[in-house]
Amino acid sequence: MLEIKSARVVVTCPGRNFVTLKIETADGPTGLGDATLNGRELAVASYLSDHVIPCLIGRDAHRIEDIWQYLYRGAYWRRGPVTMSAIAAVDMALWDIKGKAAGLPLYQLLGGASRERVMVYGHANGTTIGDTIDRALEYRDQGYKAIRLQCGVPGLPATYGVSKDKYFYEPADADLPTETVWSTEKYLRVVPELFAAAREKLGWDVHLLHDVHHRLTPIEAARLGKDLEPYRPFWLEDAVPADNQESFRLIRQHTTTPLAVGEVFNSIWDAKTLIQEQLIDYIRATVVHAGGITHLRRIAAFADMHNVRTGCHGATDLSPVTMAAALHFDLSVPNFGIQEYMRHTDETDAVFPHAYRFADGAMHPGEAPGLGVELDEERAARHPYKRAYLPVNRLEDGTMHDW
User: Fold this and answer.
1) Other C-beta atoms within 10 Å of 392: how many?
2) Could you say which of 139, 160, 187, 341 is catalytic?
3) pLDDT digits (tens, 9 = 90+) for 225-245
4) Does residue 53 sit in the same domain as residue 190?
5) 47 counts as catalytic
6) 72 and 133 inside one domain
7) Which of 3, 157, 384, 396 has an alpha carbon within 20 to 30 A of 298's alpha carbon?
8) 215 domain residue, yes or no
9) For residue 384, is it within any domain?
C-alpha cells in the first residue's frame, strides 16, 4: 500500500491562472494534477479542497481505478466540468505517483509507445489573410507539419483566435467579460478565401486546420465544410454547439470535410452518439476536462472501435501538467490523430519545469518518471490569482450568441 498522507491545491497566475493539485504519500513520491477550468478556476479549487481531498487521506495511491470510481460513482451529483476537472486532477496525480514509484515514464505504464513522436499543430493567426499566411509560413519554417488558420473578419472589430501576440493567445482577458461582436455572414465569406490563399502559398504538404468555435448552425457549418473541400482541410473544429449531438448528422449529409469536436466535453456520454454513428472524425476531449487519463482512455478505446481518432485540446488554459499527460496518452493510444500545441510563456514554464520537448513539428513527453513535470512552489507563490473571464459574444443587433 502507498498511503496518501496529504493533498493540497496550489493556485497561481504566471500570466494566466492555473489550479494544481499536489498529492503526497506517506513514504513515497508526490504527484501533480491539473484542475484548471478557464474562467471558473476557483470553483474547482474549492471542490477539491472542500469535498475531494478529505476523502483521499489514508487511501492507497496505487488504486487509481477504484479511486476514480469512488469519486465519480460515489457522488450523487455527477459529471459537469467542475466535478470532472477535479476528478481529472486526482487521476493525473495518482498516475504521476505510480510512474515515479515504478521509475518509468507514464506512457510505459499505458502499454508503451505506439509511435516515435506526437504530431502537433500550431496556431497561425492575423488580422488579415496576409498576416495569417505570413505567420503560417513562419510555423512551416519551424518544422510544423500542421497549422491552424484563423484570421480577422472584415467589418468586425475583433475575431476569435486572433491575438495581439503572434505566439501567445489568452482569451481570458478581463476582470469582467469582454463583449465581442459577431457576423456569421461576413465570417462565411472570408474563411474560404483564407484557405485558398494558404494553399497557394503553403502548398499541399502542410495540414491545414480551422476552428469555428461553436458559432454556426448545422446547415451553415455544412455550407462552410463544402466550400472548404477543394482545399482539403485536416479538420473543421467545433462547427456547431455539440449539446445536440444529432446536429452533426446534417453536416455529414452535405460535406466530406473531416469534423472534430469535444474540447468542452467532460464525459464519454457527451460523445456517445457522435462516435457510435461516426458523425465525427476526431474527438478532442482533453485530460483535464474529461476526468483524467483513466476516463480519456475509455473514450479513445470507444472511438477506436468506430474509426474515430484523437485530437486533444491543448491550448494555454491547460497547464504543462496536462500537456505532459496528453503527450503520454497520445504516444500510447493506437488511434492518435494530432495534438494541439500552444506554447506556454517563459514564466509559466519556470513555474512548471518539464521533460517534454518539441522538435520538427512533433513532441515527445520525455523519459522522466511519471508525468515528467514539477511544480516550483516558491515561484508559484510570486504569482497570485487574478480573476479573468472569457469573452461573451453578441450579434451585430445585440442578440447574445455562442462565443
Assistant:
1) 14
2) 160
3) 999 999 999 999 999 998 999
4) no
5) no
6) no
7) 3
8) yes
9) no
